[in-house]
Design goal:
By secondary structure, the protein is α/β, with parallel strands linked by helices. The chain has three domains: 174 residues, FAD/NAD(P)-binding domain, CATH 3.50.50.60; 114 residues, FAD/NAD(P)-binding domain (3-Layer(bba) Sandwich); 107 residues, 2-Layer Sandwich (Enolase-like, domain 1). Helices cover 30% and strands 23% of the residues. The chain contains 16 helices and 21 strands. Strands 1, 2, 3, 4, 5, 6 and 16 form a seven-stranded mixed beta sheet that branches. A five-stranded antiparallel beta sheet has the order 17-18-21-20-19, with helices on both faces. A hairpin with a 7-residue loop joins strand 11 and strand 12. Helix 1 runs parallel beside helix 10.
């Protein structure tokens, strides 16, 4: 335990209690787990430090439980949309079974299986709050209140994610609002739910809890839902939510909250509009970096800030090149799959540097997270679904590209018409006219998430439009929309 790396001077002269690893990962969500698995597979002794449940936000309070809540109503709606199948649908959702299904996908909020997996790949686990204590040095405060001191030969990786942020509004404390955690783990269905925020979390949770029986009012401060997407996406999702019984109010800015009685309803005050009375209120209004209490100041960084990283995920502004970040904490692309992608890139870079190998960090190189900037895929699991990858038309124009948007009515594709009676949807491809490659694609409609990976390959692979003509879509599937988009582009 006295094998102390050069530069690990944060512990003072007595190194007798320092446990040394090749790689220390702080944060055991999907990015941390993936990074640790890959560095260990390459022969580097690796430890994960986690203060909560191993598996992180995605496993217990985000991706898995939210999609488990959303899938049953989506399946029910899909059956009702097919002639001959709708006759077999009797009644509504079994709410208790849906919540039990959700609980199972969240592993009952126990991480035993995750711990077993980590052991199976020979990565060590330390429970507690980890923080930097100088270059390559980490102190862990254990649940029992003790302290462990760790040192890294090659790298420390911060994979501590993000946290829901609540606005500073009058009455917030007594209102006891839900964040995304309560929204995905609640054990009862509120009779009335107010959702504040028109982004992905807001629209998904409005859809889920309306399907489970809540009377839901969605309050979006801006003029549309999903404002970072193509404009038609928010319009169609708002239409779908309204059709399901959600009251959608755009241009609605919340000015304060009141809960006069501890167990009574909450009054949500809306500037220039009628107040909303609800049993619970969910704020889905943004995220903040999980960098508090990480000791960033001991290495010259500002506590509470997002981590700025280069494309190899090395944290910028830290001498020695030993500190890395992956996942939400980098603010590059705040999605689980992108965090795992970043972790793979970071692990490859750590291993290469540990072996004194040259990095392939040019765009699309082995050690460059280029997709974070050019080919980020995302799905919103409402009804209709929305799926996109790469740049919107406006983003492409802002980037200085000469582009053209090519649109097509998805409902006119044979596969979509077979998928659901009266299918409504839309597809858009954004074409870089100078290079004749796709730089973005967006789909809205039932089941469009399954179209997304082909679009991601086209964008990330910079496949020429002329070559895409030779990628023949099977008939009759919704993938035929690719042919229709190309025909529309050629005119």
């Amino acid at each position: 335990m006295t094998d102390r790396p050069d530069g690990a001077e944060g512990f003072g002269p007595d190194a007798a209690d320092v446990d040394t690893y090749d790689v220390i990962v702080i944060g055991g969500g999907p990015p941390g787990e993936n990074l640790a698995e890959r560095t260990r597979a390459a022969g580097l002794r690796t430890v994960v430090v986690e203060r909560e449940l191993l598996g992180g936000e995605c496993s217990y309070w985000a991706c898995m439980p939210s999609k488990a809540l959303l899938r049953p109503p989506a399946a029910l709606a899909a059956a009702r949309a097919v002639p001959g199948a709708r006759a077999a649908v009797h009644g509504g959702l079994d709410v208790e079974e849906v919540l039990a299904h959700r609980d199972a996908f969240a592993s009952g909020w126990q991480d035993d299986s995750q711990v077993e997996w980590l052991r199976s790949v020979d990565v060590e686990l330390v429970r507690g709050q980890g923080r930097l204590a100088g270059p390559r040095s980490v102190v862990v405060t254990t649940p029992e209140g003790g302290e462990l001191r760790l040192a890294a030969r090659h790298a420390v990786a911060l994979c501590t994610g993000s946290r829901a942020t609540l606005p500073d509004l009058p009455g917030m404390a007594e209102a006891r609002p839900w964040s995304s955690r309560e929204a995905t783990s609640a054990r009862h269905v509120p009779e009335r739910l107010a959702v504040v925020g028109g982004g992905v979390v807001g629209v998904e949770m409005a859809a889920a809890w309306r399907a489970l029986g809540s009377r839901v009012t969605l309050l979006a401060r801006g003029g549309s839902l999903l404002p970072r997407w193509e404009p038609f996406v928010g319009e169609l999702v708002a239409e779908g939510l309204a059709g399901a019984g959600v009251e959608v109010r755009t241009g609605a800015s919340v000015s304060g909250l009141r809960r006069p009685e501890e167990s009574g309803p909450v009054v949500v005050e809306v500037s220039g509009g009628n107040a909303v009375i609800a049993d619970e209120v969910l704020f889905a209004t943004g995220r903040r970096p999980g960098t508090e209490n990480l000791g960033l100041e001991t290495v010259g960084l500002t506590p509470g800030d997002w981590l700025s990283t280069d494309d190899s995920l090395q944290v910028e502004g830290v001498p020695g090149g030993w500190l890395y970040g992956a996942g939400d904490v980098t603010h590059r692309a705040m999605l689980t799959h992108q965090g795992k992608y970043q972790a793979r890139i970071a692990a490859e870079a750590i291993v290469a540097r540990a072996r004194d190998q040259r990095l392939d960090d040019a765009p699309w190189g082995r050690h460059a997270a280029t997709a974070d900037r050019r080919a980020v895929p995302q799905v919103v699991f409402t009804d209709p679904e929305a799926a996109s990858v790469g740049l919107t038309l406006e983003d492409a124009r802002q980037a200085g590209l000469r582009v053209r948007a090519v649109d097509y009515d998805l409902g006119s594709v044979a596969g979509a018409a077979l998928h659901a009676e009266g299918y409504r949807g839309r597809a858009r491809a954004v074409v870089d006219l100078d290079r004749e490659v796709l730089v973005g694609a967006t789909f809205v409609g039932s089941g469009v998430g399954e179209l997304l990976h082909s679009a991601t390959i086209a964008v990330a692979g910079e496949v020429p439009i002329a070559r895409l003509w030779h990628a023949v879509p099977s008939f009759p599937t919704m993938s035929e929309v690719w042919l229709r988009l190309l025909e529309t582009y050629r005119g």
